[in-house]
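Lecture notes, unit on protein representations.

Consider one protein chain, 525 amino acids long.
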Amino acid sequence: MSHAIGIDIPVRAPTPSSVTTPSLQRMAFRRPLSMRNSRVNVSLALARKSSRLSLASNVIQNKSSNEKLTPRAKKLSEIVGHLTVASEADQAIRQGLGCSGWDLFAGVGTKKWDNISYRLSRRKQLIERSRCLVDVGFLLAMLGVLVMLLEAELFLQGVISKLHIVSVTFKLIVTVSTVCLLIAVVAYHVTRIQLSMVDDGIEHWGLAVRPSWIGCILLELFICSIHPLPGQVYELSLHQVESVLSILMFLRLYIAARFFVVHSSLVTDTATQSLGALNKVKIDGMFVFKAVMSERPGSLLIVMMGVIFVLSSWSVHACDAYMAVYNNMTIAQVPGQTLENAMWMSAITFLTVGYGDVTPKSECGRVTAVVTGLLGVGSTALLVAVLAQKLEQSRSEKYVHSFVSRVTLDKVHKHAAADVIKSVLKLWRMRRQTSAVKNSHRTQTQGKLLQAVRRMREIKQEKANIGEAAVGIIEVNSAVGDVYQITEAIAVQQALFNDRAEEMDTRLSNIENTLENIANAVIPD
């Protein structure tokens, strides 16, 4: 059964010798097309044979009206019917989407994608453009965050009000930078889509866009669009909206991570990209994070913990300070409004200590404290994993330590064996001098003997434990390789033995036949 859109048709085309009329002979496929797969063969065959389908169909219909069709003619009629349906579907796709059926599957419409030089140069241009767009987005995001921090601190310190010209100007700068940032984000994703089109050789952009990309783009646009608006335009409590919008602007810092990723040597190096493509490893942000975590885990963790501490401290300070300013509260009522108390509270929350002497009073500050605690737990887990990895002995250190421990245990084992021999000889001598030796001396000597024997057994168990601890993946791999070699040698020997057994059977059969011939010659019937 064939499909309607340019895909495989599992019906073998008739040979020219099986065609009964000249018109049908012209309809037969002469040779297979030298294309990459069967979908290309069917799509191009539909385009070339579409002008001949009507002629072949008319010939078959006229022949069927005059005389009964042969089995070969019926087979060819089925092929013509399948091709007619596929051709109609292909024409519908051309009219509806502006591309052929094969274009729908692969997007190959022109020959420029066959030029590897053009594709490489185009890919290089798009990569450079995406890197420049990331740089622009990083600068705009940092500009908006810094201006927001400056405006908020001036207001919280009582220097300006929300309706002051300085506050309105700063917020207008934040709004303009936000609009430019949204444009940069859209341009970056458009460039990534074009890069995907170049990598896959696709003409239509709709084929390169995956559903997950749409969700990511919308999420990024939503995150980057969050910022406090100029003036007082909020219907809810002003301090809650101002503090929440100001804190949510820190979500733009994901662009900083993207900035460091696109400028990483792992991403910019062509050799690394080639190796990743050959091994089907995607060189992306997660790969760069894992690589940096394995190379410089201490530095990365310190930077992460420092950034989290600073952001959480200012967030708690902003939430409580906004509430204190709008409600005319003192420091005693809202201790978190000072930056020092906010830093202390964030530190003890991040370290999961929580003394409780300083607590956030606003809902925004409490949510920030919960998020800080969760991030502290995650950072502590990463720190413990890194410390465990750093404190673990290397393979060479394990071998040296195991060897030294074995030598030490061998010495102790020899001393314990010597104590056993001395105790046995002393007991043998005491047994010969039964009358002169006290029972207490004999009991003491027996206790020393039992202690020495127990010590020998403990040392033997410790040596066994050291041997088990020294076995790792490399040792297991080596042992498996040795077993495999031994198994191969046994298989070779068994094959030789089977050959010799067959040869022996053949010789015995020949001897038996020779003896039968001799017996028949000597003893006639």
